[in-house]
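Researcher: Going back to the complex we discussed earlier. I've cleaned up the inputs and rechecked each line, so this should be the final set. Can you rerun the prediction on the complete assembly and write out the structure?
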Amino acid sequence: MSEVIFDGRSLPVRPGQTVAAVLLAAGVRSWRTTRVAGRPRGLFCGIGACFDCLVTVNGTPSVRACLTEARPGDVIATRDGAGRAV
Amino acid sequence: MPVVRCDVVVIGGGPAGLAAASAAAAHGSVAVVDLAARPGGQFYRRPADVPPTPLAARCAARGVTMLTGRRVFLVESGFTVHTDGEPVTADAVVIATGAHDRPVPFPGWDLPGVLTAGGAQALLKGSRVLPGRRIVVAGTGPFLLPVATGLASAGARVAGVFEANSPARFARHAGVVWRHPDKLAEAARHLAVLARHRVPVRNRHTVLAAHGTDGVTAVTVAKVDRDWRPVKGTEWRIDCDTVAVGCGFVPQIDLGTALGCATDLVAGTAVLRVDGRQATTVPGVFAAGEVTGIGGVRLSLVEGMIAGRAASGVDVPVRLERQRAGHRAFAAALADVYPVRKGWLGNLTGDTLLCRCEEVDHHTVRAAVTELGARDARAVKLLTRAGMGWCQGRMCGDAVACAVADLTGRAPDPTDMTRRMLAQPVRLGDLANDTLEDR
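Model: Rerun complete. Updated structure for the full complex:
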């Protein structure tokens, strides 16, 4: 079974799907909150231009979920506010 | 770090870029650099288990080096293309970086569940995933129809397609439309699919606001006049979990402007100025596709074929120039029928965000003009941080320019918000690795 781990949950992934697609297919609409007002954010432009869909993948912060292909075993984590430098 | 050397480097692997690369590869060595994992751009986006477009296969057969998954942050004169991988050097550059949706802000447009029409289509075409179950499609332009038919055919309930303009204006362009019967047939096909799925399609209607707390749960739509001002008493509410919005496209010209390429304002958006050979005002730099003006896939392919030849120093056949003129005439008609009108500004509330990244609302932008004395969008950017966030003004640039112009009475200048020395965020580690060993 091909799965990724999202904040401790197992979500199914099909080959070539983006991280954003895996999350939306599982009903997850937001995976980040904003720095100033803590607003929830998820996919917006969907093609790498808006940076709203930033997420942490395998420890690498600020990855665009719309561009990054999910691979089985990936660990995906939500991010609050400004995030961390490392 | 090793360097990729070639005669022509093409930035962007969509229709224009692949056509340019394929044409140039007949005369010399060519590399294509693209952000995505696979070539094709937005139009030829396909799932991973489907072979890429034949055009990409032709490039491969002609020996084109395909560098995918690379962010190009700077093109240096001479030319060196700097990426988060190895740099590419070439004698000529073709900029074919395409365009992204032009979003027009409305109250609630930053709620999860509101996404661009292009984003909804990319999700479906690339990953076979729907952004939601009950979807409202809104904005303006012919692109809304294929987005809605795609979503409906894949099993979404499309609760309505709301086009803010009226296609009746095509009557003014009957001569041009008559010469492109294929486009009419395409629109008719989309409308037939939507009718079969019982999707209501309303012209001169728009989404006034999206409602919800953690995500969108409903929208208010209304009839609008020709300037996009809502007609009082026509508002109604539609329950939905997703809103796909798009008001045309914004060409991604930043690599060209950073090189010093001149721009023109076409239908309110800045495009790279090109001559008959698709050459920009900077020698050795060519541009093709949506960066020279929004025109669709056929125009992009023709411009790419011309740019690829021109960048190789080869003559351009008159046949291609004639095709380009025909497609450009149709694009001009579309731009006239589907403009962004000012009425959307009247629907904003003070707390509607214009800049999503830095969370700058309409009230703050207005105060920068009326209280702090800003006279253009660039001054507003410096005073409010609008356009200084992750997207560098890609999402808010046009909106802020329009909001400021509305207050100052001057014409909006979108280039105020689109100057970017670096076109992509760069990690310090990438910069440290980015040295040309044998320079």
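Model: Worth noting: The first strand of chain B starts at residue 4 and ends at 5.
Researcher: Good, that matches what I expected from the previous run.
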